[in-house]
């Protein structure tokens, strides 16, 4: 499921992330957010903002605290 997130182009990351976010459960939500976090340096500022919004939405959905590395 997460292979697409690690292999896709930065321009496609948001689209793949939004689609995968709909299928997440409590067991894989943290891994999802960590993968997105690792891809942030490749993104433009606008893409980064959208990705952070999606991450906050996922954390809120599963009552997660912010993930620190």
Mean pLDDT over the residues? 94
- What is the number of helices? 4
State the separation between the terminal residues, measured CA to CA. Answer: 22 Å
How much strand content do the residues show? under 5%
Largest sheet: none
Coarse structural class: mainly alpha
- Along the chain, the helix and strand elements come as HHHH
Q: Per the principal axes of the C-alpha atoms, what is the gross shape?
A: globular
Total DSSP E strands: 0
| Total domain count | 1
The portion of residues assigned to helices is 55-70%
Integer-rounded radius of gyration? 11 Å
**Low-confidence spans: pLDDT under 50, at least 5 residues?**
none
Q: What does this entry look like structurally?
A:
This protein is mostly helical and 69 residues long. The chain has one domain (3-61). The chain is built from 4 helices and no strands. It is globular.
What is the secondary structure topology, with strand pairs?
Blueprint (H helix, E strand, L loop, with lengths): L2 H5 L2 H12 L7 H11 L5 H17 L8
Features:
single chain; 69 residues; mainly alpha; globular
Short structural description:
With 69 residues, this protein is mostly helical. 65% of the residues lie in helices and 0% in strands. Helix 2 runs parallel beside helix 4 (45-61).
């Amino acid at each position: 499921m997460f292979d697409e997130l690690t292999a896709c182009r930065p321009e496609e990351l948001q689209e793949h992330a939004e689609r995968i976010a709909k299928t997440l459960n409590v067991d894989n939500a943290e891994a999802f957010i960590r993968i997105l976090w690792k891809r942030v340096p490749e993104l433009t500022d606008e893409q980064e903002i959208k990705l952070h919004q999606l991450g906050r939405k996922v954390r809120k959905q599963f009552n997660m605290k912010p993930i620190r590395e």
